[in-house]
Design brief:
By secondary structure, the protein is an alpha+beta fold. Helices cover 44% and strands 20% of the residues.
Length: 75
């Protein structure tokens, strides 16, 4: 994201890579960090950012992951 020069950043927000979902890679904190990186890149370029929910199948953790991304993007 450091080299990103887009003034509008859209995220295809799939949460199925959460450790507790089938992808098994990312933590809830990782999603917050992703949100922070995107927000910082958009702000640096004088633009904005948004996310569209794509996936996430473990409903016990999906809400937490979505909120972590939103918290990261909102600052």
């Amino acid at each position: 994201m450091e080299r990103c020069d887009a003034d509008l950043i859209g995220i295809s927000a799939g949460f199925d890579n959460h450790q507790r979902d089938w992808g098994g890679l990312l933590t809830t904190q990782d999603y917050q960090t992703i949100g922070q990186l995107v927000k910082s890149a958009a702000a640096r370029n004088g633009g904005g950012c948004f996310a569209i929910l794509e996936g996430g199948y473990n409903h016990y953790f999906l809400g937490e992951s979505v909120m972590a991304l939103v918290d990261g993007m909102s600052g």
